[in-house]
Write a structure and sequence with these properties.
6 helices; alpha/beta; single chain; Rossmann fold; eight-stranded mixed β-sheet; 186 residues
Length: 186
């Protein structure tokens, strides 16, 4: 089974920045994609603030902060994400926006890349159909605040391959998180 190497997080808001932080802290080279340089800077500052709080509380060392920040990069161009093995989407809860993003990513992502949505309200199967790779699409719902809470719901659809689910579960465990398996109810 191919391991996840590079991670792309789409959206650097509250959830996206938390997901990017834990991914980078676990040692994964992690790219955060935002739609503007200003929003990229805001996402970076949010992660820096979270890590500073971790240092204050004695939960994060300065060395761990530096390692985490060193594993992060911030981009605005989707093409800069082409090397990602896992794309985790955390954008606005609008199916049309998400599906447009999946369609664009399908054009640049390598064939083995996994697409995961952090949605908690939309069905994954509706995104799987638009993704162009329904066998490599699933839900990966992190709980907020991501750096503090251990649970991640991994949601498979009828089209999600067993290998995709196993790779996703392996990734979640490597973040020191506890995966909860679920099936899309659609």
């Amino acid at each position: 089974m191919k391991k996840i190497g590079n991670v792309a997080v789409l959206g650097g808001g509250l959830m996206g920045s938390g997901i990017a932080q834990v991914s980078a802290a676990a040692g994964f080279p992690t790219a955060v994609r935002e739609v503007s340089d200003a929003l990229s800077l805001k996402a970076r500052q949010s992660i820096e603030k979270s890590l500073a709080k971790g240092i204050e509380r004695g939960k994060v060392t300065e060395s761990a902060r530096d390692k985490t920040l060193g594993n992060l990069r911030f981009v605005t161009d989707l093409k800069e994400l082409a090397d990602a093995d896992l794309f985790i989407e955390a954008v606005v809860e609008d199916l049309a926006v998400k599906n447009d993003l999946w369609s664009q990513l399908n054009q640049i992502a390598h064939p083995d890349a996994i697409f995961a949505s952090n949605t908690s309200s939309l069905t994954i199967i509706a995104m799987a159909a638009a993704s162009g790779r329904p066998d490599r699409m699933l839900g990966m719902h992190f709980f907020n605040p991501v750096p503090l809470l251990k649970l991640v719901e991994v949601v498979r659809t009828i089209t999600t391959s067993k290998e995709t689910e196993e790779r996703a579960l392996d990734f979640v465990r490597s973040l020191d998180k506890e995966p909860i398996r679920a099936k899309d109810s659609s």
